[in-house]
Design a protein that fits this description.
- The chain has about 120 residues and is an all-alpha fold.
- It has one domain.
- It contains six helices and no strands.
- The protein is globular.
Length: about 120
């Protein structure tokens, strides 16, 4: 897989994601740990992750995606607009989809700025 494709549309590094690591290494303990962590972290959003569902090829790759990644409004928006990622979109600074998404604690602008430092 192309490394560039392992950067999610929100700027997260899919290679570092526990769902991707669990699938890549067929690690059931990590699946259990991730499901528990995500259920706690995203309880306010009605999270209900099961260990069997913790598998992901990466946001921008074809195949299986875990939990919220399947229904991610940011991922869907970028796809509909034909954008590679949120930060490249002309609507970035005024995007309501991003504002809603960032309530989960993920800061998209910060993600992309940290990528550019590397």
């Amino acid at each position: 897989m192309n490394d560039k494709k392992m950067i999610a549309v929100c700027g997260l590094n899919c290679e570092a994601c526990s769902a991707h690591q669990a699938m890549k290494n067929d690690d059931n303990d990590l699946r259990e740990e991730t499901a528990k962590k995500w259920n706690e972290q995203f309880a306010a959003f009605g999270a209900n992750f099961a260990a069997k569902d913790i598998n992901c090829v990466g946001c921008r790759n074809e195949g299986v995606h875990s939990g919220y990644c399947c229904d991610c409004s940011v991922r869907k928006c970028a796809s509909e607009k034909g954008e590679e990622n949120c930060f490249s979109c002309a609507d970035f600074s005024s995007c309501n989809t991003i504002k809603e998404f960032e309530k989960s604690g993920i800061n998209i602008e910060k993600n992309f700025k940290s990528l550019n430092k590397k």
